[in-house]
Amino acid sequence: MNHVVAGVADLDTSTVLLLLAAALLAGWIDAVVGGGGLVQLPALLLVPGIGPLQALATNKLAGIMGTSVSAAVFYRRVQPGLRTAAPMAVAALLGGAGGAALASFLPGEVITPIVLVALVVVAVWTVARPSAGQVTKLRYSGVRHTGTAAALGLGIGAYDGLVGPGTGSFLVIGLVGLLGYAFLEASANAKIINTVTNLGALIIFALQGAPLWVLGLMMGVANILGAYVGARMAVARGSAFVRAAFLVVVGGLILRLGWDVLGLG
Predict the structure, then answer these.
(1) d(Cα 29, Cα 37) in Å, to the nearest integer?
(2) Contact 59, 40 (CB under 8 A)
(3) What are the backbone angles phi and psi of residue 259, rounded to the nearest 5°?
């Protein structure tokens, strides 16, 4: 057997190529609307010899490489500013730490149905409001805007630390539904926030020695390529395209979590 990455059992060339393909697609999805972990993390978990903690850590390593590139593309072309992203990112870091601490006390069988219901509500709301997120019409200003953004970041950060899947989608819909951003600007802000929160998680994982660095860096290069293409496509096609991609990703999450809730996974 041709081992490409030393120290990982049964990791041959074809497996690595499949992981790179998953990372490429995940980078594109993350750049457009978030939710690339729906593709990348399960791919890692299916590889023999990679444990759940290693998969989570390696997914963060590859993901942050792509997310940072897409954040840079969005920031340069959309110029969302940091008055929303900065307080949200700081609060999300704190929420993520709290959520991670709480994760060991709440069983997954309780969390998953709640998340599933939340995603269904998000999908129904988005379909029922076709005009939502077409243009940016901020609902608040000043301290109220900052406070709402921070509260949103705290809640979604806690969810990211507690569960994870769909964090990018919840960020986008929160920015659209609560703060009044268009889908394109919401996605731009979400990338900045995701980059910061992913970095915090990666630091913790690195201190635990969990990431598979060689594999993660290889997947990160593929993730960067997908993120760059996805970010440029989103900017070029605008909020209508991002909204459509958002519904596809949320639909995929609903199917995935529904499968788990029904005990079919």
Answers:
(1) 9
(2) yes
(3) -60, -45
CB-based contacts of 133: which residues, under 8 Å, 6+ apart? 126, 176, 181, 182, 183, 186, 239, 242, 243
Round to whole Å and give the CA distance between 258 and 265.
9
pLDDT attached to residue 264: 61
What confidence score (pLDDT) does residue 150 get?
93
Q: Which residues of the chain are modeled with pLDDT < 70?
A: 1-11, 100-101, 103-104, 106-112, 163-165, 264-265
Measured between alpha carbons, how far is 227 from 148 in angstroms, rounded to an integer?
Answer: 28
Q: Does the model's pTM come out above 0.90?
A: no
- CB–CB of 59/259 below 8 Å? no
Position 93, amino acid: L
**Tens digit of each residue's pLDDT (9 = 90 or more) over 121-164:** 878 888 888 777 778 888 888 899 999 999 999 988 888 777 66
Q: Which of 161, 160, 187 minimizes the C-alpha distance to 176?
A: 187
Separation of alpha carbons 146 and 141, rounded Å? 8
Tokens describing residue 17: 């190529």
Cα separation, 112 vs 51, in Å, equals 21
pLDDT at 103: 60
Residues across the chain: 265
- Helix count (H) and strand count (E) of the chain? 10, 0
> Which H helix or E strand runs over 114?
helix 108-128
Answer yes or no: are the C-beta atoms of 91 and 248 closer than 8 Å: no
User: CA of 156: how far to CAs of 54, 138, 201, 224, in Å?
Assistant: 23, 20, 14, 24
